[in-house]
Amino acid sequence: MELSTDKKQRTIEPGHPLPLGAYITGRGAQFSIFSRNATAVCLLLFDKANDTNPSETYQLDPKQNKTGDIWHIHIHGLKTGQFYLFQIDGPFEPAAGHRFDPAALIIDPYAKAIAQERPWVEWRRELTPKCVVVNDYFDWQGDKPLNYPLRDCIIYEAHVGGLTRHRSASSAAPGSYKAVIEKIPYFKELGITSIEFLPVHEFNPREFSRYNPVNGALLTNYWGYSTVGFFAPACGYSSSGCEGDQVHEFKEMVRELHKAGIEVVLDIVFNHTAEGNNEGPTFSFRGLDNSIYYILTPDRKGYMNYSGCGNTMNCNHPIVRSLILDCLHYWVMEMHVDGFRFDLGSILGRDGSGKLLENPPIIERIAEDPVLRDTKIIAEAWDAAGTYQVGSFPGGRWAEWNDRFRDDVRRFWLDEPGMIAALAMRFSGSSDLYRKTGRKPFHSINFITSHDGFTLNDLVSYNTKHNEMNGEENRDGNNANLSFNHGIEGPSDDPKIESDRNRTAKNFLATLLLATGTPMLLGGDEFRRTQQGNNNAYCQDNEISWFDWELLQRHGDVFRFCKELIKFRRRHPAFKRFDFFSGKDISSNGLMDISWYNERCKAVNWNRKENRLAILIDGSKAETQADKDDNDFYLMFNATGEDTHFTLAPPPSCKIWRRKIDTAEDVDILEMGTSLLLSDQGSYMVKARSVVVLVSDPTE
């Protein structure tokens, strides 16, 4: 290992093994890093983020600077903002799983900031970004995580950069954490409770070598699902600098969102890292202890690829478990986030050989961890190797992305024959999936669209994907989109087509936001944001992915509908149930808590082909609910192409039905506190492909 000789005169102490990472002390800075199989560790200090040569080097003495498997050192005189990396030597024995490279510059896995000052066009040693020593102090002004109960939440999935990079955002700091603050008035008007951000942990946006075949532009990693630093907020979203300023700016964003009553949930990617497969770069875990951090092939020479991204983290190894818990603790305790969505969460359930465990230690530990007890934990309950655990994800209190809800609701509104039973099950909380494991309806994260797939606009505007600009000859992305273009592929000036698309979009929104469970809305769906038919825009950091805020005016009726629908849901506990419906009479009015009818107000034949369904919800307080009594509701769904007279169930005694929602009407939803008295209390004409919601004598 080559060492520079221009070391400044500083007082050096052995330091302490814990905590891992780098932090400021009263006299300097402490550095600590784990490596069980390393034979030599060297700390490199740099004066500037772009320096290619260190200004100081410190060879750690295994007798003085090592405790167990942890190498550590304390250096006097260092301050916040110090740049550093490591060089680590050890065996290069692929057959034993070891891939140490003494020439590689190693990023500290516990680094709280990474100074990514220039594009990583390729992985070259001199381009390795520097870690930054950060001071954790921040004036939180009394802030702490909001931790709303899931049943009260409406989650809004968005990309930090994409929210404000478009010129229409008119942002003072486009694409930044600071610019998110500018959008707080909009979020409050919309009414969401929680923002789930796509990955904000440091990643390499320039890791791809493909070009857009249409315009020749270099494709980038836009989504960020390729982590470089699990503790470090991405400096690409910082408007104030990358030398630790990104940490302060992220905290400021969280604090201001919390002041506005909005939670922050982070999409986090523990299933793999940006080091990739055997041909990938060595910059962190591979150069620290490859055999511990990754699930290796049986011959130990390669990587099991359950993530589809080249490697798989060995999440249930005790060392990796500690890393994960330390990371989650940091984001909750120091960054004040309210929850996490775990990308490809089923990988958290695999052992060191890749087999699924019945009771995975890390999944149980996260669920039972005392620091995380009030923190939201949401699993994407599958992985790229075919494991599918929706409804059976282990660990007790985990919530799950419910793609069964997405697909069944899409099929219903696509009018695939015989979908009423599936719609009823998804709308009432997916008890078939969650009751058996003792979980509640709110553990189902219901969604129609997400970052991965069509936007809502594209779901009603395209029959097939259009991913040619991804440079993969349209082979990437899902081919089974369950979408319908309403007569023409893509944008249309035909008023009839646009009217039909609007109605279908509103049908999806109504189904999502009135269903039992926790709704998640894809950001921009409320004003028909489009990705031009691209259902896999992971590499499109451009106007394909960015929020075009001009669409807010163009599709103001959809925005208004969504906004009023959110108000309606938040006002009525009947749509935010704590427990599953029982199907039994639980009140003094003689009504079931939920009843199902066909259009003639008769018992439902669940095997029928026609997709028409009516639902009567008794809003009286259930035994397991702590909410006050609510109104009663009669919902009518007609996914067929025919207008249909629905016979109405009698409202509760001494009450009358009033119309709140009809997606086929120009006034599709009445504002909060208003509703329309029905002149005919016995029947209602439900137009083709529409949703109607009636309220019993509302007292809003």
From TrEMBL:
Region of interest called Disordered, as start-end residue ranges on this chain: 467-499
Gene3D superfamilies from the entry? Glycosidases (3.20.20.80), Golgi alpha-mannosidase II (2.60.40.1180), Immunoglobulins (2.60.40.10)
Keyword annotations from UniProtKB, A to Z: Glycosidase, Hydrolase, Transit peptide
Example GO BP = glycogen catabolic process
Q: Which InterPro entries match?
A: GH, GH13_cat_dom, GlgX_Isoamylase_N_E_set, Glyco_hydro_13_N, Glyco_hydro_b, Glycogen_debranch_GlgX, Ig-like_fold, Ig_E-set
* Top-level taxon of origin: Bacteria
Q: Which GO terms describe its molecular function?
A: amylo-alpha-1,6-glucosidase activity
Biased amino acid composition, Basic and acidic residues: 467-476
Glycosyl hydrolase family 13 catalytic domain segment(s): 132-569
Regarding protein family, the annotation reads: Belongs to the glycosyl hydrolase 13 family.
Question: Entry's NCBIfam families?
Answer: glgX_debranch
What name has this protein been given in UniProt?
Answer: Glycogen debranching enzyme GlgX
Organism lineage reads as: Bacteria, Pseudomonadati, Spirochaetota, Spirochaetia, Spirochaetales
